[in-house]
Input
Amino acid sequence: MKELQRELNLTYLFISHNLAVVYHMSNHVGVMYLGRLVEVAPSRVLFAKPRHPYTKLLLDTIPDLEMKGGERTPVAGEVPNPINPPSGCAFHPRCPFANDRCKVEAPLPIALPDGAKIACHGVEEGRIPDAA
Ligand code: SF4
Output
């Protein structure tokens, strides 16, 4: 696929749950939760510095092959029914940073200087560690 992309100057829309393949294949990555984009960024930015709480938890599930012994946090709770998603930010029932605003108001994407766009009240309000 990479060879074809180079030869024919193609653009791919590549959808996968395999984050290693996504990293290898993509220039830009969009992370979706319940059908909504929650974070879009150049791949090197997203994998080096995930900002959205869901992206952070998702990347935490990648096995630590270098065995650095870092703490890994599983995504808590159940995936909600997409036909009847939670109010406000659909991730709020599972998010460790959720507050009252998150329960009622759906976050809009904000653009950051390094090309990332994040839809999260916590990032906007500076409540998410290492997300600035
Ligand atoms: S908007 Fe709130 S609930 Fe949603 S991911 Fe951000 S902090 Fe968590």
